[in-house]
Amino acid sequence: MEQGLCITVIGASDCSAEETRLAEEVGRELARRGATLICGGLEGVMEAACRGAASQGGITIGILPGDSRKDANPYVRVPIVTGMGYTRNAIVAKSGQAVIAIGGSYGTLSEIAYALQDDIPVIGLGTWSLAREGVVDKSIIIAQNPVDAVEKALSSIGRG
Fold it and tell me: Measuring CA to CA, which residue among 10, 6, 5 is closest to residue 112?
């Protein structure tokens, strides 16, 4: 039996209007493609992505840092309470078959690192870039727009 398609969307709780727009479109596109959306379950990029997925009847999972299901944004269909704070970032990053990073702050950067450590593809949409000793590290696959991000995520796991 084949497991369902799960893609993680990461980004900051405090995001710009443009990042909100991008995240919502990513969520819509993931739902249209039949993917379950996994995220940190809070506001900002996470809420926008969930709102987009929910608008298309998609499944949304929020892996919450706190102790209450009530902390989840209103578009999270399956809240998972961890009580782990930022430590839950490892679970968020490692639960998807690919990760789409939209904007983001240091929490997003930690999730990118967790994913890359486990060879989980990371697709970047206006997010962090990496360099080692002044040499650009191309581990993050750059996307041009939300549809491109979803297509690259699916292709990176052989589902595109």
Answer: 10
Q: Which amino acid is at 157?
A: I
What burial letters (b/e) apply to 55-70, b meaning 16+ CB within 10 Å? eeebbbbbbbbbeeee
Q: 49-96 pLDDT, tens per residue?
A: 999 999 999 999 999 999 999 999 999 999 999 999 999 999 999 999
Reported pTM:
0.97
- Mention every residue, 6+ apart, whose C-beta is less than 8 A from residue 37: 7, 8, 9, 27, 30, 31, 49, 50, 53, 58, 59, 60, 61
- For residues 114 and 23, is the Cβ–Cβ distance under 8 A? no
pLDDT-derived band at 101 (thresholds 50, 70, 90) equals very high
Structure tokens at 107: 């929490």
152 sits in which H/E element: helix 146-156
For residue 1, name the pLDDT band (cuts at 50, 70, 90): very low
Domains in the chain, ordered, with CATH? 6-153 (3.40.50.450)
d(CA 5, CA 98): 10
Both tokens assigned to 58: 């998609």
